[in-house]
Amino acid sequence: MSTPARGRILLSVTGFNPQRWYDLLSKEREVVLEPAGAEDPSIDYAVVWKQQPGILARLPNLKAIFSIGAGVDHIFADDRLPEVPIVRVIASNLTQYMCEYVCWRVLDHHRQGMLYRAQQAGKIWHEPRQPPADEVSVGIMGFGQLGRSAAAALLALGFTVNGWSRSRHEMEGVCAFHGEDGLTPFLNATDILVVLLPLTPATEGIVDHSVLTRLRQDGPLGGPCLVNAGRGRLQREVDILRALEEGILKEASLDVFEREPLAPESPLWSHPRVFVTPHAAATSDPAHLVTPMLAQMDAFERGEPLQNVVDRKAGY
Ligand code: NDP
Ligand code: OXD
Question: Residue 80: which domain range?
Answer without folding.
Answer: 8-91+285-301
